[in-house]
Amino acid sequence: MTHLTSVVLISLTVLLNGCMTSSSKANLYFIVRTEPSNPTIIDLRTGERHFAVINRVLTREELDTGKVILGPFELRRAGHIPQRIPEDSVIIPSDVLDLLRRGGRDFDHAYPRFIKLEKDPDYWGSNERRNRVEITINSEPRGARIYEDGAFRGSTPLRLEFAIEKKHYQQGVFRSKQIIAAHDECLPEGQILELEVDPSWRYQEDRTVCVTSLL
User: Fold this and answer.
1) What is the C-alpha to C-alpha distance for residues 173 and 29, in angstroms, rounded to an integer?
2) How deeply is 137 buried, as exposed, middle or buried, from its count of CB atoms within 10 A (0-12, 13-18, 19+)?
3) What is the pLDDT of residues 35-76, one digit of tens each?
4) Whose CA is closest to 80, among 130, 36, 112?
5) How many Cβ atoms are within 10 Å of 24's Cβ, its own excluded?
6) Which residues contact 144 (CB under 8 A, 6 or more apart)?
7) Nearest residue to 76 (alpha-carbon basis) of 124, 30, 120, 29
């Protein structure tokens, strides 16, 4: 009786290892190569948002048929014109499909075309993640009181931060308000700090340009 039980258990083990159980999951990784990289990918059928790579679980129907419907998608990147990827039907290679059905985990599929996203000429920088100018003000002697347009900002050494705005990109220059350094032992010193701004910087996000000034 013990011998028969062992035979039954071995047969069940072979059956389970040869088939995909209900708890097994096979994942699809859909890769899109772009310049600039890492766009947000919007699935226009579901509204789901993906970052750089689409990762989802393959459905039972897709594993049964060996066919995956991808798209349509829209690629979005700050400062660039959205680009659409049309719907496409992808056939899973038979050897890969066999592995997936036996409990294999991943099916990697790369979009065949390299996509270069075009810059939007009407884009003037991110409102949420603006680029910044960081000005470090030193003085000799230290401890000078710094005023910006009449408002006290602190004592040297002092670090001030300003957002780069649309007008700075358009004019190609950042100009601070009047900066005055006052010290009990010295006459007040004042100046307007300037920094050349490359208009192409607006296509970047959350960057900081550092400048040091001695007053």
Assistant:
1) 44
2) buried
3) 999 999 999 999 999 998 999 999 999 999 999 999 999 999
4) 36
5) 14
6) 155, 156, 181, 182, 183, 186, 189, 215
7) 120
